[in-house]
Design goal:
The structure holds two protein chains of two kinds. Chain A is of the alpha+beta class. Chain A is built from six helices and 16 strands. Chain A starts with 8 loop residues before the first strand and ends with a helix. In chain B, strands 1-2-3-5-4 form a five-stranded mixed β-sheet. A two-stranded antiparallel ribbon of chain B has the order 6-7. The radius of gyration of chain B is 23 Å and the shape is globular. Classes of the chains: A alpha+beta, B alpha+beta.
């Protein structure tokens, strides 16, 4: 079988991608037989599917995504967290204190208060209700220290890289620990100030140059050159 | 508004428009995306003499809450002309015209924007006309569509628009504001009976206030505005008739305000 044009193309909303009968994966719609892009991004046609890798946009919660959020309010027996989306994440009290428990407001505030940063998982997200988040798992919960930065949610896959190559590279060359939320929030913690600054610069670079090729090499070069 | 001079040449016999363009030429268009830092998406368009800034916010929470739709997101558009965008200062409050243009632009964008992906949210589009020179609503729509794409809101297609109008007998696209102001009308149905149309409206308070601020009394100002409408007609009449008509008009209007 002949390989269909493997190169990625820049596309705008309404741009024609292909006519082939492919599975529609993301950011594309079918118009008759033509597959049309719905966003600014890079078209990606694989053997059986077509999609557009978006370069702009907001975060939409998906089940099982790991996100970083800020508690905005404590409400009855649940918390609401800003998860950098158009919806607020709802964290139920029973998720933290166990089922059948009725925590008081003071108990709730002691555990998590307004302004606390949490690392959470999207437990449920449907069109009817606010997305439900959960911190009942290891590695999840309140983040006590680190530097919080924000990148575009569409850049997160670039920051992680193929099989985590980018994030591993940044971590190993700066001795920092990166906690990346799918919603575009990143917590960087590092013992040394220099490493912290370098890691932050690398993250900013990924955010600005995500559309370019050989990004890992560029970041690597930047991290090596900008040493001390 | 303004003088209704019938002798303005919008399109001369060589097919050159009043601003020097050929019939089939558009004005120069420049669009820049991502000009506002705090907006989710933004665009700035220069369309000939038009300069328009568009900002898109959202999808975000809907306030007031009762406006939200559980099935789909909603689109809100505000088209606004800056007071300094036109020759004479425009009052900054939204006029009827601006409210209507906001609605028209919203309805042009709605079928393209896939709001059903964001139930219970709103996408706000703000369009600020910094300088106006005819066809602002079309230029604003173009800018809005670029700003929406910049915000990453899924769209079935980009939306674009172009103004059209008549210059003499010719239909032309992308008019300038001068062509905006002098409309002509033609009835091409040979069987229909057409008569003089009289439109009844109140004299604009804005115009009245403007003349009064220049030292005319209210009555004088009113007479001047009404006479202004007759002027192209009276000019065609022989001198003595014209004078008589003017005096008759003044007599008729004496003591009648509004």
């Amino acid at each position: 079988m002949k390989k269909r044009e493997p190169k990625k193309r820049y596309v705008l909303p309404g741009d024609f991608i292909t006519t082939a009968p492919l599975r529609l994966q993301g950011n594309v719609v079918l118009n008759g037989k033509r597959i049309i892009s719905t966003t600014i991004g890079l078209s990606d046609i694989s053997d059986d599917s077509a999609r557009v890798i978006s370069l702009t946009g907001v975060y939409l919660p998906k089940i099982d995504d790991l996100v970083i959020g800020t508690i905005t309010s404590v409400f009855g027996s649940s918390w609401f967290a800003d998860i950098n989306s158009c919806y607020q994440g709802m964290l139920l009290g029973q998720d933290v204190f166990g089922r059948g428990s009725y925590p008081t407001m003071t108990e709730m505030k002691e555990r998590l208060d307004k302004g606390d940063i949490i690392f959470a998982k999207i437990a449920n997200s449907d069109r009817q209700r606010e997305p439900l988040i959960s911190i009942a798992d290891k590695n999840l919960g309140r983040i006590d220290s680190g530097e919080l930065t924000r990148i575009s949610p569409t850049r997160v896959p670039r920051l992680i890289g193929k099989r985590g190559s980018m994030i591993q590279m940044i971590e190993s060359s700066t001795n920092a620990t990166l906690t990346v939320g799918q919603n575009g929030l990143v917590v960087v913690s590092c013992e040394e100030t220099n490493g912290l600054l370098k890691a932050l610069a690398a993250i900013r670079m990924v955010d600005e140059q995500a559309h370019l090729v050989d990004l890992t090499d560029r970041v690597k070069k930047m991290l090596e050159n900008d040493g001390v | 508004m303004g003088g209704r001079e019938a002798n303005v040449v919008l399109l001369d016999e060589n097919g050159i428009r009043s601003d020097g363009r050929k019939v089939n030429e558009t004005r120069k268009v420049t669009i820049k995306a991502g000009v506002l830092k705090n907006a989710n998406g933004s665009a700035y368009i220069e369309f000939g003499g038009n300069k328009i800034l568009a900002g898109v916010f959202g999808p975000r929470d809907v306030h007031p809450k009762h406006m939200s739709n559980p099935d789909t997101g909603i689109l809100r558009v505000r088209y606004h002309m800056e007071p300094f965008s036109v020759g004479e200062r425009k009052k900054p409050a939204p006029s009827r015209r601006e409210i209507e243009i906001s609605k028209v632009i919203k309805e042009a964008l709605e079928p393209a924007v896939m709001l059903e992906k964001f139930p219970r949210t709103a996408v706000d589009v703000f369009l600020e006309v910094l300088q106006a020179d005819g066809g602002t609503r079309c230029a604003a729509l173009d800018a809005a569509s670029v700003a929406l794409a910049d915000a990453g809101i899924p769209m079935r297609d980009m939306v674009c628009a172009c103004a059209s109008g008549k210059a003499g007998d010719a239909l032309i696209l992308d008019e300038e504001s001068q062509s905006d102001t002098y409309p002509t009308m033609e009835i091409s149905n040979p069987t229909c009976r057409s008569e003089h149309e009289a439109s009844v409206s109140k004299v604009s308070d804005e115009q009245l206030f403007y003349l009064m601020s220049r030292g005319h009394s209210e009555e004088e100002a009113l007479a001047m505005i009404v006479n202004g409408f007759f002027e192209p007609f009276t000019r065609e009449l022989p001198m003595e008739y014209a004078v008589e008509l003017n005096q008759l008009m003044a007599l008729e209007m004496e003591g009648s305000i509004g």
